[in-house]
């Protein structure tokens, strides 16, 4: 069989009418603050448990801050979200991985999704690439069988049609925020990617607080149900169980034989709230009336007087120098005392070249301004 090229298998797929998110969903996303998201940046790991109680796989999620530059020109600070699921269903290895770049406003700028089912004789892999370019969101879906691309669908959306879109990458952050608030917006209709990667409605609903045994402990968990209403497919439904800080304790996909659970209680993330700034009452200080402060003042005064007297005794030339300056000052009586003092003491400076003690009257002084 001759291998087909990408151009031969790719085709532009007509896009169904794009639904619209309602006002409640758009408003909910716009009101999520950065200080809420910063507590949702962490990694976690769960295991897949079959109906018979056997461990059949793993499920990991990580969120971190990074820089993103699609054209190596303008960098943008955003969130890198990775999720990976590995396991077996009826003895068949299955893997799913998601890598997405999400902005501070929880908009997806790029996302890579890979789903693989490794049949012994007929492995199948589906790859989906979503990327934002200016005012367009481009989607490419590729089906690979036996390492050969057999089908490629490409389509695009205008960004104006995507208000309220929550991709699989952004979904982890959005649900962690909901879990920390322990509240889900009522009657909110979001947008999501369906099975065929077309945009379709998506809803979240609260199933309340339940008890769950985590390791040897029993914890209260907040349960959120997410449903993606694909147009021509059966709705996809998940139930997510969250601890108070947003850690996922359990995930159930309706119709799946495996359940994702954590094996032990994680260290919960506390919200760091700064303590209120203390306010001290201002007390007037009368140090002359305070016995202790007045005693310290007298001690320091005597210490300085003794130090100054010792210095003067060790330098007898100081008295002679000051006497000469004061005598000349009283004879001349200059208007500018500071400049007169600078000119008088200039010859004693070690940083200036030596000069005659009696300077010529017509020689300009560096301490006086001349026009």
Distance, first to last CA:
98 Å
Helix content: 10-25%
Number of domains: 2
Element order, helices and strands?
HEHHEEEEEEEEHEEEEEEHHH
Mean pLDDT: 87
Spatial order of the strands in the main sheet? 1-9-8-7-6-5-4-3-2-15-14-13-12-11-10
Beta-strand content bin:
35-45%
Helix-and-strand structural type: alpha+beta
Q: Which stretches of 5+ consecutive residues score pLDDT under 50? A: 1-10
> Treating each run of at least 4 consecutive H or I residues as one helix, how many helices?
7
Description:
The protein has 371 residues and is of the alpha+beta class. It folds into two domains: 13-261, no CATH class; 291-348, no CATH class. 21% of the residues lie in helices and 37% in strands. The chain contains seven helices and 15 strands. It has a 15-stranded mixed sheet with strand order 1-9-8-7-6-5-4-3-2-15-14-13-12-11-10. Strand 2 and strand 3 (55-68) form a beta hairpin. The protein is elongated and about 115 Å long.
What topology emerges from the helices and strands here?
Blueprint: H1 6-9, E1 10-12, H2 23-30, H3 34-37, E2 43-49, E3 55-68, E4 76-89, E5 92-102, E6 108-117, E7 124-133, E8 136-145, E9 148-158, H4 168-181, E10 189-193, E11 199-214, E12 217-228, E13 236-242, E14 248-253, E15 259-261, H5 291-314, H6 317-332, H7 337-345
Parallel strand pairs: 1-9
Antiparallel strand pairs: 2-3, 2-15, 3-4, 4-5, 5-6, 6-7, 7-8, 8-9, 10-11, 11-12, 12-13, 13-14, 14-15
């Amino acid at each position: 069989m001759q291998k087909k090229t990408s151009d031969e298998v790719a085709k532009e797929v007509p896009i169904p009418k794009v639904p619209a998110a309602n006002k409640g969903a758009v408003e909910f996303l716009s009101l999520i603050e950065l200080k809420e998201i910063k507590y949702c940046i962490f990694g976690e790991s769960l295991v897949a448990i079959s109906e018979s109680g056997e461990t059949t796989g793993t499920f990991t999620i990580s969120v971190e801050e990074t820089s993103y530059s699609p054209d190596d020109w303008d960098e943008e600070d955003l969130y890198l979200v990775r999720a990976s699921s590995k396991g077996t269903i009826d003895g068949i290895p299955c893997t799913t991985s998601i890598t997405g770049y999400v902005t501070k406003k929880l908009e997806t700028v790029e996302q890579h999704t890979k789903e693989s089912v490794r049949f012994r004789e007929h492995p199948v892999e589906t790859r989906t690439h979503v990327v934002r370019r200016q005012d367009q969101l481009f989607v490419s879906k590729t089906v690979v069988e036996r390492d050969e691309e057999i089908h490629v669908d490409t389509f695009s959306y205008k960004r104006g049609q995507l208000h309220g879109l929550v991709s699989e990458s952004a979904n982890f952050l959005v649900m962690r925020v909901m879990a920390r608030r322990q509240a889900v917006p009522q009657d909110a209709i979001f947008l999501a990617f369906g099975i065929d990667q077309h945009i379709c409605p998506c809803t979240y609903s609260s199933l309340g607080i339940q008890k769950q045994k985590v390791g040897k402990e029993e914890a209260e968990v907040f349960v959120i149900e997410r449903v993606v209403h694909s147009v021509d497919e059966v709705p996809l439904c998940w139930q997510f169980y969250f601890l108070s800080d947003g850690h996922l304790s359990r995930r159930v996909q309706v119709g799946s034989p495996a359940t994702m659970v954590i094996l032990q209680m994680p260290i919960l993330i506390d919200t760091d709230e700064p303590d209120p700034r203390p306010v001290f009452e201002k007390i007037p200080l009368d140090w002359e009336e305070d016995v202790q402060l007045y005693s310290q003042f007298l001690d320091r005064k005597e210490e300085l007087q003794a130090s100054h007297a010792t210095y003067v005794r060790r330098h007898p030339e100081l008295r002679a120098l000051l006497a000469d300056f004061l005598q000349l000052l009283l004879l001349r009586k200059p208007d500018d005392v500071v400049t007169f003092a600078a000119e008088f003491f200039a010859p004693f400076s070690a940083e200036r070249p030596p000069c005659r003690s009696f300077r010529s009257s017509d020689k300009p002084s560096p301490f006086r301004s001349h026009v």
